[in-house]
């Protein structure tokens, strides 16, 4: 899956403190919601299967919970070979029950590999038609012999099994066939076989679609739902005349048949390759498509008007080249006969790599240059590359169990940049991994409550534990350490090992160390000089959480490492097999000249090369931030680096300028250097025009905004930053001939957004007048004059400066927009208003799927919380509605950690800490699902923030008042 929500950090705009009026609105709101909750409990079906309780023939003594069906993992007795599945989703509600449903039947042929008298097969929320023996399934033997009778059959809800107890034993080596017939709800819950809705020409349209990863294939048909139990699948879909059906395989034939007295279409698909259940997909829609044949058949599917408007063209244009790139990179032809990609209006993640039928959020696939910013376009290119990368890495070769998820997602998150770079070579997109992944995940991985990349197989059992793994550590740290590995092995050696790994394990499963073995063979072959084996080096990064700060003393040449903790007083309770020491590859420079790679293999060492004698000579380590660590220097070297920044900043490569800022701010957070020293890295920004250093500075200053935007320090910060950003603002004004054209470079376009956001945010009048005049022109003429690149920030600032008129205008545009990318910009911008009742009304809308789609609910709440005026409103809202929010959005969603982290990000007072602890206690019973870890991280972060403010407020205020 691709990461779901990307939240822009510069939407919040300063304003007033929430008043009494807002509080009373909150109380009124929570009454509304408790009524809503009560209503919902009546209306919603229990979702339980038909016969959920154990029949009396089985022992009823309190079970010690060690029956096979109490365990979340399947016993190793049966191995599926082949499934045939027929599904018929109804796109209209049942006239009697009002439910949207699907019916289906399936059989699975499986081999018994260990004698047993028990069949456990996953099944969740399915109702079964009992056979003539009143059993949920029929068992028969394939080819020879006979099958034992089914003694008892029942559904075990907790562990999501259909349990079949047999009269006799299944014989080792014999193949059996299990037939079932079932009904499920086609709910709007974004998991398993579910429905998505949209309006076209005033008519409501319904799509049946799937999201199986991680454990929801079992919600669409009974299956052995573990990634290592690969099998072949014959899929058949029954669907209304006039709709199209898609699945992983190519359509073999579509015929008109009669079912239940209705004329319907039956589409039979080619048998799939041997694959995991979580990669299956079934979709029925009335979509249109465009296609091209570029080695394989490539099709882009979307709503008819979107295809007609050419919104699939960009995806179609870049898919062929990216597939070709990966074929070369992996040295392996695309494993399937077709590649379909489809945009779904309701979709929880960013995208899902179903084999041969990739599903996307609309914003992640559809491109329209009248509405899309360069950032939207980049996201489309990188997500497509991410998913296509999985067609081999993940789908052809699959990790055996979810504990190794980090390798699957980390790998795709790394090579997505390589794939996107092939499609758009002018962008230099590969540099951005430093901001988007390395810096981003440093923030999480520097907490004592972080976790190692790799988990033990036994520790990851329940669906919620699996969901929790879809986090920044798996994606971004995974990507960062693989990039580092590829760098020190060199790219040709890395790809050679990768290619032989894919060759050996095609259509099979692996554990992460299998990749290390193949890389090691490539290393041995190429005689790469490594201080230790690939496995020994990588274990230090994979088996322990966190990362080091490397300290270089240029006076003595000493180089040492220490576990970097954002809060130096936090207590690390997680033991590490390596004592929090890492095998650290150091690429470095001396006064602008690149030096040979060196390794730090122990706690500290001395390297005479790193001694510096000249008065203006400096050392800079972690060239281009290819290493997953931070760097600190002796005070003299820091001074010289700061001098280099202010005298001739281009003597330091731009990625490292971004690094110096980020490292300095974080070292200051960890009390390794004074905060004032970090602030000094922003002095040179007056002369900086490059995007990456600016973005790095803004990401770090964001913390100052969060900590101080409710205090008197804020005014001084604004004044300083206004002075720093004004030259950049003027630069863009000239470059674009008074805002009439668009800068050429991708990064320049990004930095133009930074210039406007920061200038407006810090109160530069010219900026505020500019954006308000654009927005006003749009409202007056109904013609939008704002370039798509600038829309997010312009909308946000104009809505913040405006009132109900501006907000309602945006809401109307949001509701009438048929372009998801445009709607998303408006949705984020509406959270920028400073009017409390508007914010509260907006919060209320997030629980109404008719107003805000479920997929967008949690991110909208986070947007509101980012606004200083919305912060406490959003928090009260979450607290008072937790039960409801959790039951609606808690299952399967991995944006849940984002919700908790997002809403508590600004927390920095004892009062907020107390509330957070209380929240944790009060909802212990309901739980936090995939947000469990995020709750602890938020508590830790809040404690650190409280301390930080106490220690820094005075000096920070003083520095901003007199910045030198
Ligand atoms: C499944 O059975 C339960 C209990 O009888 C019922 O409430 C539910 O609506 C059924 N679901 C479907 C999709 O038929
Ligand atoms: C099925 O749809 C096609 C085109 O939409 C139409 O020509 C045909 O008459 C329909 N057949 C039936 C049996 O409804
Ligand atoms: C599955 O599909 C393949 C061809 O796609 C076909 O040859 C085979 O007979 C099918 N198997 C079953 C059980 O329908
Ligand atoms: C797709 O490629 C065609 C042919 O190169 C080009 O004319 C068109 O502008 C491209 N469309 C997009 C959206 O990139």
Automatic annotation (TrEMBL):
All copies of domain Aminopeptidase N-like N-terminal, residue ranges: 79-279
Name a GO CC annotation attached to this entry: plasma membrane
| Stretches assigned to the ERAP1-like C-terminal domain | 618-943
Chief localisation class:
membrane
Q: Which domain of life is it from?
A: Eukaryota
Q: Where in the cell is it found?
A: Cell membrane
Entry binding sites for Zn(2+): 386, 390, 409
Q: What is this protein called?
A: Aminopeptidase
Q: Which organism is it from?
A: Xiphophorus maculatus (Southern platyfish)
């Amino acid at each position: 899956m691709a990461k779901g929500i990307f939240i822009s950090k510069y939407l919040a705009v300063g304003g007033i403190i929430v008043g009494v009026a807002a509080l009373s609105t909150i109380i009124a709101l929570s009454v509304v919601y408790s009524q809503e909750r009560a209503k919902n409990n009546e209306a919603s079906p229990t979702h339980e299967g038909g016969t959920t309780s154990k029949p009396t023939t089985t022992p009823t003594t309190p079970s010690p919970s060690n029956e096979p069906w109490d365990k979340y993992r399947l016993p190793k007795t049966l191995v599926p070979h082949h499934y045939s599945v027929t599904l018929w989703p109804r796109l209209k509600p049942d006239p009697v029950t009002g439910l949207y449903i699907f019916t289906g039947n399936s059989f699975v042929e499986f081999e018994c590999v260990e004698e047993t008298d028990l069949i456990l097969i996953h099944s969740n929320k399915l109702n079964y038609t009992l056979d003539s023996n009143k059993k949920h399934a029929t068992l028969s033997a394939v080819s020879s012999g006979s099958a034992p009778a089914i003694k008892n059959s029942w559904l075990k809800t907790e562990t999501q099994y259909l349990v079949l107890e047999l009269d006799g034993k299944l014989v080792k080596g014999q193949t059996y066939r299990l037939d079932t017939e079932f009904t499920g709800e086609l709910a709007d819950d974004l998991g398993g076989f579910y429905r998505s809705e949209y309006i076209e020409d005033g008519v409501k349209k319904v799509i049946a679609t799937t999201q199986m990863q991680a454990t929801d294939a079992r919600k669409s048909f009974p299956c052995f739902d573990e990634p290592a139990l690969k099998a072949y699948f014959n899929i058949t879909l029954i669907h209304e005349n006039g709709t199209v059906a898609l699945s992983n395989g190519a359509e073999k034939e579509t015929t008109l048949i009669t079912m239940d007295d209705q004329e319907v279409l039956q589409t039979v698909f080619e048998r799939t390759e041997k694959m995991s259940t979580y990669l299956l997909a079934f979709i029925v829609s009335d979509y249109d498509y465009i296609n091209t044949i570029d080695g394989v058949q490539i099709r882009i599917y979307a709503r008819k008007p979107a295809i007609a408007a050419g919104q699939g063209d960009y995806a179609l244009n870049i898919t062929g080249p990216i597939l070709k790139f990966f074929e070369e990179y992996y040295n392996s032809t695309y494993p399937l006969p077709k590649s379909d990609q489809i945009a779904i209006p309701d979709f929880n993640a960013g995208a899902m790599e179903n084999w041969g039928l990739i599903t996307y959020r609309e914003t992640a696939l559809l491109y329209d240059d009248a509405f899309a910013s360069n950032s939207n376009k980049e996201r489309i290119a990188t997500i497509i590359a991410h998913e296509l990368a999985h067609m081999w890495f993940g789908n052809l070769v699959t990790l055996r169990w979810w504990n190794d998820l980090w390798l699957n997602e980390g790998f795709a998150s790394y090579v997505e940049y390589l794939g996107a770079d092939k499609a758009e070579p002018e962008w230099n997109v590969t540099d951005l991994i430093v901001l988007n992944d390395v810096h981003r995940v440093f923030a999480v991985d520097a907490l004592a409550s972080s976790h190692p990349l790799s988990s033990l197989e036994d520790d990851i059992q329940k669906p919620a534990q699996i969901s929790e793994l879809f986090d920044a550590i798996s994606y971004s740290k995974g990507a960062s350490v693989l990039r580092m590995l590829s760098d020190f092995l060199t790219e040709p050696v890395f790809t050679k090992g990768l290619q032989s790994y894919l060759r050996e394990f095609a259509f099979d499963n692996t554990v992460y160390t299998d990749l290390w073995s193949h890389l090691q063979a490539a290393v041995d072959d190429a005689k790469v000089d490594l201080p230790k084996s690939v496995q020994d080096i990588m274990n230090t990064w994979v088996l322990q959480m966190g990362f080091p700060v490397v300290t270089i003393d240029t006076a003595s040449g000493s180089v040492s490492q220490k576990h970097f903790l954002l809060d130096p007083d936090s207590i690390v309770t997680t033991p590490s097999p390596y004592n929090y020491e890492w095998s650290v590859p150091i690429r470095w420079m001396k006064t602008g000249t690149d030096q040979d790679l060196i390794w730090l293999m122990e706690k500290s060492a001395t390297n005479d090369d790193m001694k510096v004698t000249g008065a203006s000579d400096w050392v800079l380590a972690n060239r281009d931030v290819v290493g997953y660590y931070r760097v600190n220097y002796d005070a003299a070297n820091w001074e010289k680096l700061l001098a280099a920044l202010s005298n001739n900043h281009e003597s330091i490569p731009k990625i490292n300028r971004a690094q110096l800022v980020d490292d300095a701010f974080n070292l200051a957070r960890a009390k390794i250097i004074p905060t004032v020293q970090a602030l000094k890295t922003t002095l040179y920004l007056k002369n900086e025009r490059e995007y990456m250093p600016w973005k790095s500075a803004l990401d770090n200053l964001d913390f100052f905004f969060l900590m101080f935007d409710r205090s008197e320090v804020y005014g001084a910060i604004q004044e300083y930053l206004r002075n720093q950003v004004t030259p950049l603002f003027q630069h863009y004004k000239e470059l674009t001939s008074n805002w009439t054209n668009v800068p050429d470079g991708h990064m320049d376009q990004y930095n133009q957004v930074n210039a406007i956001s920061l200038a407006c945010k810090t109160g530069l009048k010219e900026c505020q007048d500019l954006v308000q005049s654009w927005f006003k022109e749009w409202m007056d003429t109904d013609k939008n004059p704002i370039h798509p690149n600038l829309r997010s920030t312009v909308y946000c600032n104009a809505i913040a400066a405006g009132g109900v008129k501006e907000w309602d205008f945006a809401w109307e545009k949001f509701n009438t927009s048929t372009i998801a990318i445009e709607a998303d910009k408006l949705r984020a911008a509406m959270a920028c208003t400073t009017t409390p009742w508007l914010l509260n009304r907006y919060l209320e809308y997030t629980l109404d799927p008719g107003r805000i789609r479920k997929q967008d609910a949690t991110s909208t709440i986070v947007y509101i919380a980012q606004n200083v005026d919305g912060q406490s409103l959003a928090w009260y809202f979450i607290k008072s509605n937790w039960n409801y929010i959790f039951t609606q959005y808690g299952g399967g969603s991995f944006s849940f950690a984002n919700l908790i982290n997002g809403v508590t990000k600004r927390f920095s007072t004892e009062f907020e800490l107390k509330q957070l602890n209380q929240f944790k206690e009060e909802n212990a019973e309901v739980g936090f699902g995939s947000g469990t870890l995020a709750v602890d991280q938020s508590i830790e972060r809040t404690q650190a923030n409280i301390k930080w403010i106490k220690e820094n407020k005075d000096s920070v205020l003083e520095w901003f008042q007199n910045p030198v």
